[in-house]
Amino acid sequence: MKLTPTAIVGAFHVEVSPIADHRGLFARTFCAETFASCGLESVFPQCNLSFSPHRGTLRGLHFQAEPHAEAKLVRATRGRVFEVALDLRPHSPSYMKWASVELDATERNAFYIPPGCAHGLLTLEDECEVFSQMSTAYHPPSARIARWNDPAFAISWPFEPLILSDKDAECACYRPQGATHE
Ligand SMILES: Cc1cn([C@H]2C[C@H](O)[C@@H](COP(=O)(O)OP(=O)(O)O[C@H]3O[C@H](C)C(=O)[C@H](O)[C@H]3O)O2)c(=O)[nH]c1=O
């Protein structure tokens, strides 16, 4: 595996090192020791998948508030998706910045997103499936949404989403900590 830092502190592009032979290939996708030695969460008690039949489906940006903030290791198991991590940690050097990775099932790459960051995806083709390993169990009262087109973040999506949930479309824009409320 190869872990490459991104513009978000603590978020990494994870690439596999496939071992090919006459049968096909074998690749390690996760190693707790490697992750722990790099300061990444290494225990994932919950895994999820999402399937989106249509190109242009946007999911996110979602995160859980403390003390249920979760790290995610996300990969496309079918298709290609544009994945975004958004740093919402007020004390982080990359606070309110975003980073993207294109996850491709044929590349078998992944995106590690640390706790305190929101996560979203836009499918780049039909029939996309995304598999996520979560470091914290789902806790609905702690579920939060950051708006995909919030001008405060200015995320450069490859194109306008065609399909998204009402809750993702209608969520309020973010107010940075300490911001005055007009
Ligand atoms: C996350 C989660 C959700 N749910 C239920 C809640 C809803 O009734 C339904 C769909 O949830 P949601 O609309 O949050 O699913 P997506 O919009 O695909 O969001 C997912 O993908 C984006 C990119 C994310 O970052 C989250 O990891 C994840 O929420 O599954 C559960 O039952 N368990 C869970 O762990």
Automatic annotation (TrEMBL):
Pfam families documented for this protein: dTDP_sugar_isom (PF00908)
Record SUPFAM superfamilies: RmlC-like cupins
Chemical reaction(s) catalysed: dTDP-4-dehydro-6-deoxy-alpha-D-glucose = dTDP-4-dehydro-beta-L-rhamnose
Name used for this protein in its record: dTDP-4-dehydrorhamnose 3,5-epimerase
Subunit annotation: Homodimer.
Associated pathway: Carbohydrate biosynthesis; dTDP-L-rhamnose biosynthesis
Keyword Protease: no
GO molecular function, one term: dTDP-4-dehydrorhamnose 3,5-epimerase activity
Alphabetized Gene3D superfamilies for the sequence: Jelly Rolls (2.60.120.10)
The organism's place on the tree of life at top rank: Bacteria
InterPro entries: RmlC-like, RmlC-like_jellyroll, RmlC_Cupin_sf
Family stated for the protein in its record: Belongs to the dTDP-4-dehydrorhamnose 3,5-epimerase family.
Keywords from the UniProt entry: Isomerase, Plasmid
EC number(s) on file: 5.1.3.13
Role noted for this protein: Catalyzes the epimerization of the C3' and C5'positions of dTDP-6-deoxy-D-xylo-4-hexulose, forming dTDP-6-deoxy-L-lyxo-4-hexulose.
